Description:
Number of strands: 0
Largest sheet: none
Shape: elongated
Order of helices and strands: HH
Radius of gyration: 14 Å
Number of helices: 2
Low-confidence stretches: none
Amino acid sequence: xxxxxxxxxxxxxxxxxxxxxxxxxxxxxxxxxxxxxxxxxxxxxxxxxxx
Length: 51
């Protein structure tokens, strides 16, 4: 099955915009760096899952 180049679809069936690339996020705001500085409480559940 070929992979689609379309935007991801959310639960409503509507395309959703892609997020920022990690290289576009300032170093101090990146999840891995925030985890090291602030601990688990400094991240959202989605960020923790992403790591």
